[in-house]
Amino acid sequence: MASRAEQRAETRRALLLEGRRQFARDGYHGVVLEEIARATGVTKGAAYHHFGSKAGLFRAVVAEAQQEVAGRVAGAAEGHDDPWEQLLAGCRAFLAAGSDPEIQRITLVDGPTVLGWNEWRAMDEASSARHLSEALEALIATGAIVPQPVEPLTRLLSGAMNEAAVWLARPSATATATAAATAPDDASGETRLDATMAALRLLLDGLRPR
Amino acid sequence: MASRAEQRAETRRALLLEGRRQFARDGYHGVVLEEIARATGVTKGAAYHHFGSKAGLFRAVVAEAQQEVAGRVAGAAEGHDDPWEQLLAGCRAFLAAGSDPEIQRITLVDGPTVLGWNEWRAMDEASSARHLSEALEALIATGAIVPQPVEPLTRLLSGAMNEAAVWLARPSATATATAAATAPDDASGETRLDATMAALRLLLDGLRPR
DNA sequence: GATTTCACATACCTTGGGTATGTCAATGAC
DNA sequence: GTCATTGACATACCCAAGGTATGTGAAATC
């Protein structure tokens, strides 16, 4: 029938897929590894054989999700020629991707604590955050942004977008009647993304030379 | 000897203190509740009597730490008269407070996942994030910042500072040789705070009307 | 075709959060 | 003062779930 390598790859992929589903739905600590295995049609032993631990499977799921986000960001940026527009398009794509509940819970909420902040940051840097720092460096090189160390700036912007993405995907209106002044009826979904992008655009404008 | 209310308060405070120490040092999932109790001089039963669950104790610790941060932020802001300077001083105080490893691990890293992002955000809003949104509203009211909905902006800035604070307290130079171009020798501690504040200042400048 | 490898399955151990119940001193009623 | 009650814990136990050690049978190698 199937060769051993094929079977192995298939099982691995199936575990990864089911793991992603369950981790996204119930959160890392709400998931029992044996359930993932059962839903996949194998036993816990298979999961340990492939990934070594529950955290190991989760790490692989995180990596996959981050790659996907990075792909969307890069794809969005490609559609523009002007570096500044590329940055904005990439940011928007990141916010949209991060708003996807499946992506979000895994990469933004559980990722840092389960894997540890340092490891998570390294993975983030290897995928989507890299695009951000590269874009910033390019803009500094062309003089579109005032010269400055990129690392603090990358951290600030990356954090800003991470948090904003989580906020964007929140179930509905938190609306603690704090600032409902501007828009009486709740702005859901796209509108909030636009509002966030508008604010981000302003912040980024501050980086341009006067 | 001690009245029952006094004894109760004393035990509660002792558990809170020891809990904070251990949660900060080993992280939420690295801590066993029985150890906290043992170090406090009581048993696990006492902890459950006071806080209901391990997460309950952690929640109380988080609340306390957040109050402390809010206090430092408000204190720093009070030292200035100009609202814009108040904002900057508050931001700097937040970054400094968040860089404290004890504060950080509890409020910024473990908080969101253990308590859930929604509950964590509500607690954050009730303490330090509230100062931020109030300051932004005040600046909009006086015309120092262009009119806009404050919530997206608050989320962006809050996230930016959270992430930056975690980055600032990182053990040492991560230095993946990515952007070591600008500063050859590593800038540790205060210098990184200054660099972060400089970048944040630029970003905030973008909010002022042209 | 015998041997080895390896992708899993099975059985078991152990940690640790949670709970049910007991106990004894402080409190209040009389 | 005595007696009943409350309450702040201690003790003993349950059990879910991550991890491990070992077994097994089919594919790969020779």
Automatic annotation (TrEMBL), chains A, B:
Residue numbers of the DNA-binding region are 32-51
Q: Which Pfam families match?
A: TetR_C_41, TetR_N
- The segment(s) forming the HTH tetR-type domain are 9-69
Q: What PROSITE patterns does UniProt report for this protein, alphabetically?
A: HTH_TETR_2
Keyword annotations: DNA-binding, Transcription, Transcription regulation
Determine the domain of life of the protein's source.
Bacteria
Does this entry carry the keyword Transcription? yes
> Is Metal-binding there in the keyword field?
no
Specify the protein name: TetR/AcrR family transcriptional regulator
Q: Which organism is it from?
A: Streptomyces gossypii
